[in-house]
């Protein structure tokens, strides 16, 4: 997954949220605020990894240990994009789902 795909996903979610808030109010998204923050955290961390990997390249390394250090950063960058960024798909899917399951739940559903 690429960073621009994650950014596009965030934009899609935000545009969806703006439309729904205009119709149903902001309260509809409050139960899923943690999901939104998780998605934004992943995207932000991906952006930071991209900047670190791009800023400090192997060509600037002066020793074998420096090269290994930068290779480690690049490997971590690759890991993050392979394992963490795909999670944003599921988070975006939930955030853009029209089923307000968390808002409709009533405490008395569990009373005897």
* Biggest sheet overview: none
**Overall pLDDT:** 87
**What is the alpha-carbon Rg in Å?**
20 Å
The percentage helix is over 70%
Distance between the termini: 48 Å
Q: Outline the low-pLDDT stretches.
A: none
Structural class: mainly alpha
Number of helices: 5
Elements, N to C (H/E): HHHHH
Shape: elongated
Strand fraction? under 5%
Number of strands: 0
Q: How does this structure look, described?
A:
This protein has 112 residues and is mainly α. Helix content is 71%, strand content 0%. The chain has helices at residues 3-24, 33-55, 64-84, 87-95, 101-104. The longest helix is centred in the middle third of the chain and has 23 residues, at 33-55.
Entry keywords:
112 residues, mainly alpha, 5 helices, 71% helix
What is this entry, summarized?
The protein is mostly helical and 112 residues long. It is 71% helix and 0% strand. The mean pLDDT is 87.
Produce the secondary structure layout:
Elements: H1 3-24, H2 33-55, H3 64-84, H4 87-95, H5 101-104
Helix pairs in contact: 1-2, 1-4, 2-3, 2-4
